[in-house]
Specification:
Layout (H helix, E strand, L loop, with lengths): L3 H5 L4 H12 L5 E11 L7 E13 L2 E13 L19 H7 L10 E2 L3 E6 L4 E7 L11 H19 L11 E2 L1 H21 L18 H8 L2 H9 L2 E4 L8 E5 L5 E5 L6 E4 L3 H5 L6 E2 L2 E2 H18 L6 H33 L3 H17 L2 H12 L1
Parallel strand pairs: 4-10, 7-11
Antiparallel strand pairs: 1-2, 2-3, 3-6, 5-6, 8-11, 9-10, 12-13
Helix pairs in contact: 4-9, 5-10, 9-10, 10-11, 10-12
Length: 386
């Protein structure tokens, strides 16, 4: 973990004073106190260095004022095979700084915003800091069906101009083909289990395309051959997508006129992608029931709200196109990732020859997969492909 507290009280003190001056609108501010509180530490992304709330008091025009800001650290991974310095990399390490410094968000639709950006610092050791508006403590337990519908509608508002002919940003850092890049990125881990399963390794029978249970067959088929799904997803009408709008990256807050503003953050994967694909991430952690409705019903309401917003903006889009974008994102991002995680878990176990442990982990994997949305969405994606 980066020693942010030490650096802000030492080597980077001038950086802190500059940021607090921007927060309070006073370049001559005098920082009186500074407290650094960890909020999160990377969540598995190798380019993430952590997130902190940095707060305190400062003297501005003779008055002591409180201030608070969020500091997000990113770094360029050096212990991985791929080059995170390349614009084309799915996880190009400076992408979020580049997008926040650009004018991409200069005309956000009503009811949607991004956190205020107070600047960034890029250091010689290939680490960087982003200074962002403090949105307060986020509590996902307060999300309702209406919250998901609101977020989906705002994504549609942002995306509709690009579906109506507004050129997508031409910046070199804009991501493309995120689903395909993701599948390629994790393929070494999926192969850990798919190759031996296809060769008849008994403990992995669930992933053997010749023996998998009927309710898993379509999912397993996609694990081995996802190319038809990716090609169709890439033929969908293209728009500007967040590419990771899960509810941990969205804050809903009341506006002064009684409305709701959806604040979307963590734009690290922003890029060109097919219509509907952002819904795959938005609905990834949706509970099995919410507000008395089951998951398929909630999904239908959210997809319908998203499409309705597009249509009301003049976009000619079918329900099948939106639904396929949703299904393809869920399968390419979450199903393939679950197989990759399985490969990561079982690689050492298989190397030790512990067949009983492999079988037990497969039973757990099968139960969890069957209980979720993926078998149903894979079946629907296959129908739409036909």
């Amino acid at each position: 973990m980066l020693d942010i507290d030490r650096r802000l009280h030492g080597d980077e003190r001038t950086v802190l004073v500059d940021v607090v001056g921007r927060v309070l609108g006073d370049p001559d501010v005098v920082v009186e106190s500074c407290v650094v509180t960890p909020l999160a530490q990377g969540a598995g992304n190798p380019a993430s260095g952590g997130i902190w709330r940095v707060s305190g008091s400062a003297l501005s025009h003779g008055v002591s004022l409180p201030w608070s800001v969020v500091l997000k650290a990113v770094l360029c991974p050096t212990n991985v095979d791929s080059d995170h310095r390349a614009y084309s990399h799915i996880n190009y390490w400076l992408r979020e700084i580049d997008v926040l410094k650009s004018d991409v968000f200069s005309e956000m639709p009503t009811g949607m915003s991004t956190p205020h950006f107070f600047g960034s610092n890029v250091f010689a050791d290939e680490t960087a800091w982003l200074w962002l508006e403090d949105l307060g403590n986020l509590d996902r337990r307060h999300w309702s069906v209406a919250s998901y519908i609101h977020a989906a509608s705002r994504l549609a508002r942002m995306q509709s101009p690009y579906l109506l002919g507004t050129p997508l940003p031409a910046e070199p850092w804009l991501n493309t083909k995120v689903q395909r890049k993701w599948v390629e990125l994790v393929r070494p881990l999926t192969d850990v289990v798919l190759i031996p399963a296809s060769e008849g390794y008994e403990p992995l029978w669930i992933l053997d395309p010749n023996r998998t249970p009927n309710d898993m067959r379509t999912l397993v088929d996609f694990a081995y051959d996802i190319e038809p799904l990716l090609r169709r997803a890439e033929s969908l009408p293209q728009t500007l997508c967040h590419n990771d709008p899960n509810i941990d990256n969205i804050a809903l807050r009341a506006t002064s006129d009684g409305g709701i503003d959806a604040v979307f953050f963590d734009w690290q994967w922003i890029g060109r992608e097919g219509v509907g694909t952002d819904l795959g991430q938005l609905l990834c952690d949706l509970p099995a029931t919410l507000d008395g409705l089951d998951r398929p019903t909630i999904e239908d309401q959210v997809l319908d709200a998203y499409r309705s917003e597009l249509v009301s903006s003049g976009v000619a889009i079918s329900r099948d196109e939106v639904e396929f974008g949703y299904c393809s994102s869920a399968i390419s991002r979450h199903w393939i990732f679950s197989v990759a995680l399985l490969g990561n878990d079982l690689g050492p176990v298989m190397a030790d020859g512990n067949a009983a442990a492999v079988a037990a982990r497969l039973d757990e994997f099968l139960a969890k997969t069957r209980a979720g949305r993926l078998p149903r969405l894979a079946h629907r994606a296959a129908e739409l492909l036909r």
